[in-house]
């Protein structure tokens, strides 16, 4: 080997050592940089110079070494596992936060507990039953009911506000996801440009990996790297980042009447399929954004969102429609049952509705036309009735299908006019009754016109007809004049100035009735008091479950990240050791070159 070749060999070693020193210094400088992956030098032999051969081998002379690559130290398996599990962690953290907010709003963690408000209504009923003819007790009962409703409306309103707040978080998450997509696309371009030769764009790759980590927090992602070094990303199985385009996601109202936002692709198709619920087995519990949508629900929940076996639509013609009920339960579990805020709104509204309608039905009882007229010794000669509803529309109904005010058994007010038909909880837009006239006949066959009061039924398709928390208020007539509270006996029952003992007892009895279950997946029916306790107990159980799952996921994510750091993290002590090692290598190559240089100088001096 010539001296010039030897000199070149030393220079190659010098360059390799210099590159190693620079790379190690770069590692040390980024020891605390988030997302940085350790860079390692891969050295390789240069092409060997063939100087001869024999029948068993070649005679070759080495020409030194060169840097084959500066590569990242990363583990693809750990990266994918981290992005999956951090998405699941964020999913359950959102669910846990939603449960905590519900508990706070209901005062179960601090402040005034709503359970105390329910108990106050029960106590006021007991006191009223002792002295139903006392204007003081009547006033206290109405006032307590008003407090009960106002407190319920305040809780419900705050739950709605929390839903709107989640809307804001949903919009912010969508904006951030789109920003991440644009940055990944830009980094893809830079990486492909730098790596078109033999270089590795490691720092750009670190930035891209950090963005993929963050994207994994928001949604379920999959990705792969093409031959140009570009990462192509899917969200929920749909392409998000392609080689040269970002398919952004957007928000739009679920419908024209709601403020609730849905997350959709540019085509209008929803990003998430929320009808399937969520499950760890199916990996449908991934990502903060999906969890926000599921925690919020698609509307403000009301009692009609929860299937109930007592609902009239399942009990027509005296037969229970099990098939329709079972299908509604399946739909409930896939949607409302999985939406924690909406589900608790609906369960809460179910309690308020039950209390309000139970009290109203005692104060203003209803029955079928034949029963009411029969008690009065009358029959009707008509089969249909026509009247105008609250919207001004003409309605025609069969008399056998309507309920009317049961004037024979109903109590009246203790005011001078013995005012009838005063419910305690009123709908804001719809009166309890519509007055109509029908033709009736007495026992002797004599006909005449008689007024009846048709009960305006609740229609699940028309929210204004429902006794929901939002649509109710306390009857203004009773607030102005508590003596109109119908607890006095009517003329049919022989009452003049006395109270109606039957009505008072019924008001007490409704608190002992097991009216329904908190949801269709529970078999045990509850009283009003027990129902609320079961509702809060269910919320607390979910809270513990979600908090535990979020905590478990946090530990799992930390473990995976620890394994990632073991592969790609930078140890300052280790790198300082390498730095000294490479500096010695640089020095050794320098001395080697100096020696060759001295040999060349000596040779030239002797030959000159």
Can you describe this structure in just a few lines?
This protein has 608 residues and is of the alpha+beta class.
Main attributes of the structure:
608 residues, 13 helices, alpha+beta, 49% helix, three-stranded antiparallel sheet
Q: What would you call the structural class? A: alpha+beta
Strand content: 5-15%
Shape: rod-shaped
Span between termini: 22 Å
Kindly report the spatial arrangement of strands forming the biggest sheet.
Answer: 5-6-7
How many helices? The count is 13
Q: Provide the gyration radius in Å.
A: 39 Å
Unreliable spans: none
What is the percent of helical residues?
A: 40-55%
What summary fits the major beta sheet? Answer: 3 strands, antiparallel
* Annotation, overall tally of beta strands: 18
Mean pLDDT: 89
List the helices and strands and how they pair.
Elements: H1 3-29, E1 39-45, E2 49-53, E3 58-61, E4 65-72, H2 76-105, H3 114-130, H4 135-194, H5 202-218, E5 221-225, E6 231-235, E7 238-241, E8 249-253, E9 261-265, H6 288-296, H7 322-334, H8 340-363, E10 366-368, H9 369-375, E11 379-380, E12 384-388, E13 394-398, E14 403-405, E15 425-427, E16 433-441, E17 447-455, E18 472-474, H10 476-480, H11 501-509, H12 528-568, H13 572-607
Antiparallel strand pairs: 1-4, 2-3, 5-6, 6-7, 8-9, 10-14, 11-16, 12-13, 15-18, 16-17
Helix pairs in contact: 1-13, 2-5, 2-6, 2-12, 3-4, 3-11, 4-5, 4-6, 4-8, 8-12
